Amino acid sequence: MIRRLLIVGYGSIGKRHARLARNLFPKAKIIILRHKICEEIKNKYIDHCVTSLKEAIKFEPQIAVIANPATHHIKVANHLANLGIHLLIEKPISNSSKDVLKLLNTSDTKKSVLMVGYNLRYMESLTKFRESLKKNIIGRILSVRSEVGSYLPLWRPNLDYKKSVSARKKLGGGVLLELSHDIDYLVWLFGDVKWVSSTIHKQSDLKIDTEDTAIITLGLSGVEKKNEIVAHLNMDFTRHDTTRYCKAIGQKGTLYWNALDGSLKLLKKGEHQWNTIYKKKNRQDSTYISEWKDFINCIKNNKKPLVDGKDGLKLIKIIEAIKHSSSSSSVVYLN
Question: What's the pLDDT at 335?
Fold first, then answer.
């Protein structure tokens, strides 16, 4: 079914998608679109490399993965969407909400699938966390604590962090966009954002021109919209103790998800020890493989992906509200 694939961008995530696409479609033709020269790209995962969108369109891809910097996503995606090409856009969908709705409308008109790459939703331990919340094992949720952070220079040891997308505002860097997975899963678990209050800063001596720290409070609707849930989210590029977790505090206990070891722990009301109710460490590539399988299934069966374009647009609007809240020192309400 899938014979021609296009990967836009060939950084670390583009390379990962090229490798996974080759494993999933061993007989397909896969080409790379990048702005740099292509001579150094010679491997078993790709068949060809081009440096212009015109050449990429001439290839007539059925699927395109948009994995270039976020500031360039929409321009390329709109051209491809107009041709009815199915799109997997790496997170975030863009660095701005401008023209995103136009892209969504084009994809709808052309009846093509548009998925946004918030692959954390495919992590089995996070899915188990969501299922446990739905089973009401901690009763009505009162508040949420979430944290994510690690030291940016250690993210990609073979790359000068100062030259990375994460470090550069013009490419869509900064903790809000780069770590937006954690905003996405909070919405997935606890409902739409009604209001935000935030402080974002460049705190460290890192040689970057973006924020490296965000301290955010979110008013969430609750999945069933029965009661508002207040969530506190801390994000940073500065900590040396790599962290990603979420605690849901309920009337009947606390549920604690640790993304690093894939564990889910429960502390019931009146008890003093945590009980591990699930543990499965995420394997390399597993969430990306699940994401790809969902993407292909949606193409084959005309289904909606787990994370669609509307989810991507919603996240960007939340991030814009967070930035506005910080710059204006005010609570910002979302429609």
Answer: 80
Which CA distances in Å does 157 have to 16, 105, 161, 218, 274? Answer: 16, 40, 8, 33, 35
Q: Where are the beta strands (DSSP E) in 105-176?
A: 114-117, 141-149
CB 121 within 8 A of CB 188: yes
pTM: 0.96
Average pLDDT over residues 108-133: 97
pLDDT at 39: 66
Phi (first) and psi of residue 2, to 5 degrees: -95, 115
* Residue 75 in this model has a pLDDT that exceeds 90: yes
Q: Per the structure block, which two tokens stand in for 319?
A: 């991030």
pLDDT at 40 over 70: no
- CA 167 → CA 35, 116, 152, 172, 283, distances in Å? 19, 22, 8, 9, 27
Alpha-carbon span 302 to 297, nearest angstrom: 8
Q: Does an H or E element contain 289, and which?
A: helix 286-301
